[in-house]
Amino acid sequence: MFAYAGPNLPHDLFEATGRDAGPLTWNVDRAMPAADRWLESKFAPWTRSVLQDWADGALDHLEAVVFSRADDSAQRLYYYLCELRRAGAIKGPEPLVLDIAKSPRPSSITRDEVALRKLADRLCVGEAALGPAIAAGNAKRRPDLASAAGAKVCLIAGSPLPDERMHRMVEQSGWSAIGRTLAEEWSDLGPAVDEGPEPFAALARQLHARRVDTRGFFDRSGALTEAAAASSAKAAILWLIEEDDTTVWHLPAMRAALEAQGLPVMVATRRDWSCRDGIDAEISAFLAGVAA
Question: Fewer CB in a 10 Å sphere around the end CB: N or C, the chain?
Fold first, then answer.
């Protein structure tokens, strides 16, 4: 069995293996001495939990873990784990990386296909297995219609959420919350993949076009306003954690785009990923003001 960490991964390829254990999990509400020893403070909080589990032997039942290069924290953790295993400091599963390119040019798609084939060889998947897996994946895909009809909807965007704890904070104020957790980002199947005689090329095109990573070239403000409109949001929270060094550069444009739609926006930056910094009171006050 193998697991994975990061967004923009080839779930159809994973399905074709028959050995997909799903995304890695995390628990940041605990002591993590190994992570404190080996990782710098600006690593995403989930990486610390994963490294602690690796050091503790909690992942020894896995053969490998596939990391996405589409996420800076995932790819950096991959390199650290490789070096720690090489030095004998930890054991555990083999770290693998899907080294895809996101530049908007055809050569990047070709490079992505090469990377997919390399990973498929390691996971023992050929075209004969990938084609049916793509067809099965397309049958599972449905449009994301995350909305709450007739409710006051607050959109939460920015850094991926650790779980639904912030949703519950919003709901305590009588609102409905829309916002994807990190696990949802990682496990998202994405749009349909073209079915045909060249499944690896089709999957490469799908991965290259996706917009769920920190390295892609796309209009993040436009994507955010599309999400706000699709959910019929009446307010928005732009929440970024202390360790976020990518989305924060787009914050002014994202805020301006939401406000241009007439949405009240709460901006919360340099926050604690575990939400133990008083964000619940701030959300309550913000939504009370919007309702008034």
Answer: C
